[in-house]
Design a protein that fits this description.
Elements lengths: L1 H21 L1 E2 L5 H8 L4 E5 L2 E6 L11 E6 L3 E5 L6 E2 L11 H4 L45
Parallel strand pairs: 1-6
Antiparallel strand pairs: 2-3, 3-4, 4-5
Length: 148
């Protein structure tokens, strides 16, 4: 009986490692391999030669999105995982996730930077006239315009 218990304890880490490997996606995997590793996706969307596999994650609305695997011509090209139990061995296009604590912080209270005017005007002539323009009155036309 004790030997069975010892064998079970020795096999438990191997079982955990195999479960972790099962939830790992690598670039180049086929859709069938992804489904074998992660299970059936919650939603599948196709657009041209791309397939998007959406998986519900463990963080729900706190993450802001489902876990996502993107395949191009039946080959994994990207993956975005918010669940801690799923892993992508490639380089994900996802930005780093923001924790709820950091997202709740108020915006910076720094005043916006004000622009300094140039020391010397940069235009060739001033935009406001220096002197009042003088204009002669229009001379009256000798004949009134004719209307057709």
């Amino acid at each position: 009986m004790r030997s069975l218990f010892a064998i079970a304890l020795l096999c438990a880490p191997a079982a955990c490692l195999s479960q972790q490997k099962e939830k790992t996606v690598s670039p180049g995997m086929s859709e069938a391999q992804v489904v074998e590793a992660l299970g059936k996706p919650a939603t599948v969307r196709k657009n041209g030669d791309r397939t998007f596999l959406f998986y519900a994650n463990t963080c729900g609305k706190n993450c802001g999105m489902n876990d996502l695997v993107i395949l191009t011509r039946d080959s994994v090209s990207d993956a975005i995982f918010r669940s801690t139990d799923r892993h992508y061995t490639g380089t994900s296009s996802s930005p780093a996730s923001v924790s709820a604590k950091d997202a709740a912080k108020p915006a910076s209270s720094k005043a916006p930077l004000r622009m300094k005017p140039p020391e010397k005007p940069s235009d060739a002539s001033p935009s406001i006239p220096v002197s009042t323009p003088t204009m002669k009155p229009a001379s009256p036309s000798p004949t009134p315009p004719q209307t057709p």
